[in-house]
Design goal:
It is built from nine helices and 17 strands. The protein has helices at 38-46, 113-118, 144-147, 150-162, 178-190, 202-211, 239-245, 286-301, 320-328; strands at residues 2-8, 11-16, 26-35, 58-59, 64-71, 83-85, 98-99, 107-111, 136-138, 170-174, 194-198, 215-217, 228-233, 248-257, 276-281, 311-316, 334-338. The protein starts with a strand and ends with a strand.
């Protein structure tokens, strides 16, 4: 099969690798389509993702959906021809080739987390990894081009619980990339009252307004309607903390989503009211992420949520290098990778 390999920093190749062999709790999934995770996949390719800087070469990808073609003997929650989201490839079966999740391969592995839990083997000693919890079946009426966005949407909607957001809250979001725009779209469906967005790119600000934002601001020109319940940093930059604190009501929350670019946070409490919360969400809460899939699929069925609003570019697998180039030019919201 074909796999997308980061051979060395900023050098990508599509190489032949062995097709994975499913174990007893595993399903083999033929990939239908995938999406680039703009920041994480780019950081991995550039050699800038924490813990992976010296792991080259490795296989890329972690947002994919496909069809089950084979299941192990202990699998109970996947069947052949089911659609599955979140398949990965941790073992490339090639000497000196590591895994950067490997989800761009033509075949991936989805693990039956629920069966492992039921059998008492969902632990490290039996090879269990926490990401197994979000390798799930997707109902057949959800098309693959919609299902693939669940990788992003589940994580964002799940974080609403980590951030203790409530319907009726007033929220300001820094960053109108795929995550920030997902906060806008899902926040409107969730029932947030006022949603503001901050981004330096006019096109992205306009997109946020189409998605339901009440106001869109350039950095440094923010006019909130009053003290806010939450500020969400969808960029991951420590400086946003100092800006965000000044907008919060007493007891409001500054919410950091995703990997922070700097190792040290400085808090100037004079910029905040007496009481405030700081939530740092650099890694998903898998339970919340998995459970959010039900609501997201309902919104897809009701035509309230569609990947067509997010997918701005499409590439065949053979042209995935061009997809990374377009992401680097900052013109991509989501790039869909199509498989024959």
């Amino acid at each position: 099969m074909k796999s997308v390999i980061a051979v060395r920093p900023d050098h990508l190749e599509i190489l032949d690798t062995p097709t994975p062999k499913p174990g007893s709790y595993q399903a083999l999934v033929r990939t239908e389509c995938a999406c680039l995770c703009n920041r994480t996949d780019s950081d991995l390719l550039h050699g800038a993702f924490p813990g992976m800087e010296d792991k080259f070469p490795f296989a890329l990808g972690h947002e994919s959906v496909g069809t089950v073609v084979e299941v192990g003997e202990k699998v109970r929650n996947f069947a052949v021809r089911d659609r599955a989201v979140g398949g990965l490839n941790f073992d490339l079966q090639m000497e000196r080739v590591n895994s950067g999740w490997g989800g761009f391969g033509e075949f991936t592995i989805a693990n039956d987390h629920a069966a492992m839990v039921a059998d008492g083997v969902a632990d490290e000693a039996h090879g269990w990894v926490e990401v197994y919890e979000i390798q799930t079946k997707v109902d057949a009426d959800i098309p693959p081009q919609e299902a693939v966005l669940l990788s992003t949407w589940r994580e964002v909607l799940g974080s609403f619980r980590d951030f203790h957001l409530q319907p009726g809250d007033d929220v300001l979001i820094f960053g109108a990339g795929p995550v920030g725009l997902s906060f806008v779209k899902l926040g409107r469906l969730f029932g947030l009252r006022w949603i503001g967005i901050v981004d330096r790119h006019a096109v992205k600000r306009a997109k946020a307004l189409v998605f339901g934002a009440d106001a869109a601001f350039e950095p440094g020109r923010i006019k909130a309607p009053g003290r806010l319940d939450a500020v969400i940093d969808a960029v991951g930059h420590a400086d946003i903390l100092q800006q965000g604190l000044s907008f919060l009501r007493r007891g409001g929350s500054h919410c950091i989503y995703g990997e922070l670019t700097q190792p040290v946070l400085h808090i100037d409490k004079t910029k905040a009211d007496f009481n405030f919360n700081l939530f740092v969400h650099q890694w998903p809460t898998r339970k919340y992420e998995r459970e959010s899939q039900v609501q997201l699929c309902e919104w897809i069925r009701e035509a309230k949520l569609t990947s067509a609003d997010f997918i701005t570019h499409r590439f065949p697998l053979a042209d995935i290098r061009q997809a990374f180039d377009e992401v680097a030019r900052r013109g991509v919201i989501k790039a869909l990778i199509e498989y024959s």
